[in-house]
Amino acid sequence: MHRAAYLFLLSTMLLWGGNSVAGKLAVGHVSPMTLVFLRWVMAVLILLPIGWRTLREDWPEVRSNWKLLAGLGACGFTIFNVIFYTALNYTTAINVSIEQAAIPIVIILANFMFFRLRVQPLQIVGVALTIAGVALTASHGDLGQLLKLDLNYGDAIMLVAVLCYSLYSVGLRLKPAIRWQSFMLALSIAALLISLPFVIWEIASGNVIVPDARGWALTLYTALGASVVSQVLYIKGNELIGANRAGLFINLVPIFGTLLSVLIVGEQFQPYQAFALALVLGGIALAEYSGSKAALQMQ
After folding, report:
1. At what angle do helices 230-241 and 2-26 cross, to 10 degrees?
2. 65: DSSP letter
3. What does the pLDDT look like over 219-267, one tens digit per residue?
4. Nearest Cα to 27, choosing from 73, 89, 97, 77?
């Protein structure tokens, strides 16, 4: 069971790391809100033939839980990405990476507040190690750069994004008893509807960039890889080991994003990147050892 969860979550973070690279490559080829909107249009079109029959069969449960499903789709699928792209217009990638590392901490706090789920001391140490790895990556190997961070409006709204995705992760615990096809289709439709006002605003403000060939290719990747496949795997991983343990894997995203930038964009590989990867993987392994041991004792 745990091996499947690890495979699902590692694959998810690799796809989300690729999404970071796609975001860099998309600049000038498709505007942010248009990218968010089109990725969910494509995601719904991909999921319709897969989930339409199960959605109809699960409709009574979907209808009775529509507020929860709409909230999950809004927080995890749309608002996080909208704020993430917007924050990068006001703050640096370093700041965003550091702030994103707070997601596992917020998940742990939210799980304690709402469900009284406790963590083990070694899990806290593991979280600290993964954050150190993210900090090392974000600062390009010079932790002294973190002292020079200039916090601004972008950082403030990024904290809202962190809260949104943390609540989404914790909220998956309340997922109704419907099949994954119905669940994903329902959340994707909610995400599409909620993204519509943002793209309308972008068009009205004259900031829209209609995708060119590269823009369409990157949009397809974000829809299929970073939206549909990765979200299914993340949900499955959460089901298997819980949000506290699954959320810690999120700190692999900037690490994988950096490594993929080396492979795809041609950036130079640095020794600190290997050390950062070792810190994050070591932190996850330590936290997982403690978390899985505690879970076995509770059974």
Report:
1. 150
2. T
3. 999 999 989 999 999 999 999 988 888 888 988 888 888 888 778 877 6
4. 89
What is the Cα–Cα distance from 89 to 230, expressed in whole angstroms?
25
Other beta carbons less than 10 A from residue 216's beta carbon:
15
The verdict on pTM exceeding 0.90 is no
First to last CA, the chain: 15
Non-local CB neighbours of 188 within 8 Å, separated by 6+ positions: 40, 43, 44, 47, 73, 77, 227, 228
The residues, any chain, with a CB within 8 Å of residue 113's CB and separated by 6 or more, are none
Name the residue ranges covered by the structural domains of the chain: 2-298
Q: Let me know: does 42 contact 219? Beta carbons within 8 Å.
A: yes
What CA–CA distance (Å, rounded) separates 248 from 243? 8
